[in-house]
C-alpha cells in the first residue's frame, strides 16, 4: 500500500471520528491501567460492568491493595480468568505503592515490570492515559492492518513497528483507537462489513477478493 492511500484512509477515519476514545471507562491513569489488565481475553463491556462497582469503593493502588486477592475477586468474578487477574492486580498495586509512590509510571520498561502488564497493555496506557506515541496491537488491529494492507506483518510486534513507521504522523497519536474501532465494528473477523466500510475503495483485501 502506498503512502497516499494510507493518508486518505486515516483522513477519512479522522473525519468520521475526530476525537476517538477507548471504550473502557476510567477517570485516571491508574483506573485505565487496571481496566486494561482486566480486559485481557474479556470484553470492554464486561470489564466496565465490574469496574463500575469496584472503582467507587477502591480506585487507588493503596485502596485496591487493601482489598486483598479475595476482596478484589468479589468485584471482578464476572470477568474471565478473574483469579489470576486478581493476583496480578494486587501485586501491581503493591509495586506501585512501594516503588512508584502510588503513581503509574510513564515508561514502557517500568510498566512492563508490573505483573499482568505486557507490551500491548503498556502501549495502551502510554498512548491513552499519557498521550505518548505508542501502538497497542490487539487482535482487531492485527487483523485490520493485515487485511487492508495498511501494515501487514506476521506477528504483533512486526505490525506495531510498521504502523509506527507508515501511519501518517499527523494521525499517529489517535490511530490506535481508529483501527481498533474499525476492527470491532466494521472489519470484523468472520464476515467483514465491506459494503458499509468508509475505506472499502482503498482496501487491498477487497481488491484481492474481487480479482479471484
From TrEMBL:
Cofactor: [4Fe-4S] cluster
Catalytic activity field: 2'-deoxyribonucleotide-(2'-deoxyribose 5'-phosphate)-2'-deoxyribonucleotide-DNA = a 3'-end 2'-deoxyribonucleotide-(2,3-dehydro-2,3-deoxyribose 5'-phosphate)-DNA + a 5'-end 5'-phospho-2'-deoxyribonucleoside-DNA + H(+)
UniProt entry tagged with the keyword Lyase: yes
GO molecular function: 4 iron, 4 sulfur cluster binding; class I DNA-(apurinic or apyrimidinic site) endonuclease activity; DNA binding; DNA N-glycosylase activity; metal ion binding
Top enzyme class: lyase
Cofactor binding remark: Binds 1 [4Fe-4S] cluster.
Coiled-coil boundaries: none
EC number: 4.2.99.18
Domain HhH-GPD, chain residue ranges per copy: 38-185
Sorted UniProt keywords: 4Fe-4S, DNA damage, DNA repair, DNA-binding, Endonuclease, Glycosidase, Hydrolase, Iron, Iron-sulfur, Lyase, Metal-binding, Nuclease
GO BP terms: base-excision repair, AP site formation
InterPro entries: DNA_glycosylase, Endonuclease3_FeS-loop_motif, Endouclease-III_FeS-bd_BS, HhH-GPD_domain, HhH_base_excis_C, HhH_motif, Nth
Domain of life (superkingdom): Bacteria
Pfam families in the cross-refs: EndIII_4Fe-2S, HHH, HhH-GPD
Binding site for [4Fe-4S] cluster: 187, 194, 197, 203
Annotated PANTHER family: A/G-SPECIFIC ADENINE GLYCOSYLASE/ENDONUCLEASE III (PTHR10359), ENDONUCLEASE III (PTHR10359:SF18)
Family: Belongs to the Nth/MutY family.
Purpose: DNA repair enzyme that has both DNA N-glycosylase activity and AP-lyase activity. The DNA N-glycosylase activity releases various damaged pyrimidines from DNA by cleaving the N-glycosidic bond, leaving an AP (apurinic/apyrimidinic) site. The AP-lyase activity cleaves the phosphodiester bond 3' to the AP site by a beta-elimination, leaving a 3'-terminal unsaturated sugar and a product with a terminal 5'-phosphate.
Protein name from the UniProt record: Endonuclease III
Encoding gene per record: nth
